[in-house]
Amino acid sequence: xxxxxxxxxxxxxxxxxxxxxxxxxxxxxxxxxxxxxxxxxxxxxxxxxxxxxxxxxxxxxxxxxxxxxxxxxxxxxxxxxxxxxxxxxxxxxxxxxxxxxxxxxxxxxxxxxxxxxxxxxxxxxxxxxxxxxxxxxxxxxxxxxxxxxxxxxxxxxxxxxxxxxxxxxxxxxxxxxxxxxxxxxxxxxxxxxxxxxxxxxxxxxxxxxxxxxxxxxxxxxxxxxxxxxxxxxxxxxxxxxxxxxxxxxxxxxxxxxxxxxxxxxxxxxxxxxxxxxxxxxxxxxxxxxxxxxxxxxxxxxxxxxxxxxxxxxxxxxxxxx
Amino acid sequence: xxxxxxxxxxxxxxxxxxxxxxxxxxxxxxxxxxxxxxxxxxxxxxxxxxxxxxxxxxxxxxxxxxxxxxxxxxxxxxxxxxxxxxxxxxxxxxxxxxxxxxxxxxxxx
Lengths: 321, 109
Description:
The complex is a heterodimer.
Chain A: H1 2-13, H2 18-43, H3 49-59, H4 62-69, H5 81-108, H6 116-143, H7 150-153, H8 174-191, E1 210-213, H9 216-219, H10 221-240, H11 245-266, E2 273-276, H12 282-320
Antiparallel strand pairs in A: 1-2
Chain B: H1 4-27, E1 32-33, H2 34-43, H3 50-62, E2 66-73, E3 76-83, H4 85-105
Antiparallel strand pairs in B: 1-3, 2-3
């Protein structure tokens, strides 16, 4: 009988903090012995092995028993959970886009094959799991006070997004702000080569097809990086103080001006991306290049239009408040 | 989908959680060790799982509401707990709070 009790206590002891181990185990042993004595008194005989086993099982699994003595703290507590859930939704949306966009490009360029779906799912699942794990680690750091939560507790109603009254043009929700921030950070990571470019996904295994960027992008390396960095405070304001319209619009004006300048510099430098496929059919390759050039032209025109409209709206917001 | 019994059980646990601490503090006006405390609570109709009781005693002691010492009794070393001065003051305030809640709720129930 004592052998079972000793084994049980040793299993609990192994999971307890060293400083408290001896003390807790002594008290737990006393509890067990009291329960044994009470049971033996009731039965009028010593407990057999099975009865001792049952008694110890009633006290609980060693992991559960040791766990009760630890600090009562969830990995993501109920107060933090809605923020964690919000962040995970944003990250999952990004993971889905990161997996689907290359697949769509492959489909459009006729490079898709039967494995495309399984490859897309295969890209999405590990990225999603990694991002959820990352969000959980950050939430756990908040939960334990390693990261201060002043931003979550010292909030003001005045900082909440303003009611649009139906005019929702370029009004960003918090979700969009977080999304934009994450995408901007990913872009900066890719631009600075800290994160691999998804275009690696649209080059085939034998490198028979690849995309070559125009040298103008090397010349514009710093301006593009600067523009992306300026976008960060604009996104941050949308997340942290969405009610601060003037501040956000002022930064957005800089971003829009920078974007327009970029479009103006890039337009005469076309083609901006060249498809290289030495073994491909010449006519097919020319077709693909034309489609790509046209897509980029349309993209630049749309970008210029969006930047102009945003510029007008943001200037109006800065003036009107 | 939780059943009505599950929902009741979870609400009951929630309701009991705070009152158990009050019962434990009240019973420790006089010195007791863990097992005898559980028996004393049981004898007045307050059942508490020892898995919850012992860690609770340690938390209350860490908060300075209980004082403890190891002593030998019945040929075994036992840890005896008793309310500290801070514990007495907190118990008095919690008891007032409990009576106020009770007085406010009783007419509603």
